[in-house]
């Protein structure tokens, strides 16, 4: 019956749709009226049609499903272990430990926890410590990114030569997914990079590792290439989720296309594992309950775009200490998406969308062009030392701030529809603004900044 129904309607071409739109505009300019320009350099059109939509072959998730995790700051091994056991009973499917120093005893931290679903984020580079972790849980994922350390702190863990040597030892010493390259792009997005920049910097960041370590003529580095060429490992991508719903869906699909493209340069069938969490960039002290809405749609974007693991950001994380209420709400937001919105039932929900496929293709192409520009300039690390990356991010962040001031970009409760019943507090448990940390550094570090900070400060 349905086939006969649709046979009664002639298909309408993209050209016919555009002609109809032009008639309805009655002389108004199509581009000025209906086309939206974005800071990522992509114009959003009013119509996307099968006649011009690209056909994309997006690599599948690393896993059959997406997983709910929870970030735990492991400043105290006993307390972090207790909290991990608690959240695993209450809806989380994994935990992500941020370990500040090597004094945190991994034997205590990991005691009684499951083999799978454990991510380790040490904020230091110590091979002996990592060996201890491996002895306790060889199925854990250890995330270390020496370039992110340089970009965020301004200094290496030790120095360039020692860090690269230790990183090669880390990759070669452990089989499977325990040790692999991690590319953390959260810093770029949180500092104000556009989506195109985030993806382009990812490509250049990843290539910096592969270019350095996949030279098979070097005896020490040949083992790194072998580990990836034999598909024993994949790339960890740690990301934050921006506020543009459809653009973010396309971004996560583009991550997989770019990973494959960079792998092809080295004749490696490269795959990736994507961990995503909402950004701090668009969160605010003003009408802070709106942060719940922001994190919900952001998590949806990551899931529909194909992220493997998602951990949520408590609405009050940047101004309150860790608390049961914020953690529980954040975790339950993800449980609702999985258990009640059924977002775990299909792995490729965005397939077939002309709009998202077009965005994915455009983001991928623009990111690759940016990557090529960075390579012509000497590579990503060289660009960091020259300050090019920092300058470009600052320019994008300034443009976004101008859009907030001019209300071209709307933040509900901040620059539009302010809630007079929720004024700023006199004091917060945590200092919610950028903290100055003057010290000697090799490069100017990239500094994350929330969009609403200047508005908030003006009202305090």
UniProtKB/TrEMBL annotation:
PANTHER family: METHYLMALONYL-COA MUTASE, LARGE SUBUNIT, METHYLMALONYL-COA MUTASE, MITOCHONDRIAL-RELATED. It comes from Nonlabens arenilitoris. Pfam families: MM_CoA_mutase. GO terms for molecular function: cobalamin binding; intramolecular transferase activity. This is Methylmalonyl-CoA mutase. Gene3D superfamilies: Methylmalonyl-CoA mutase (3.20.20.240). It comes from the Bacteria. Residues 142-420 form the Methylmalonyl-CoA mutase alpha/beta chain catalytic domain.
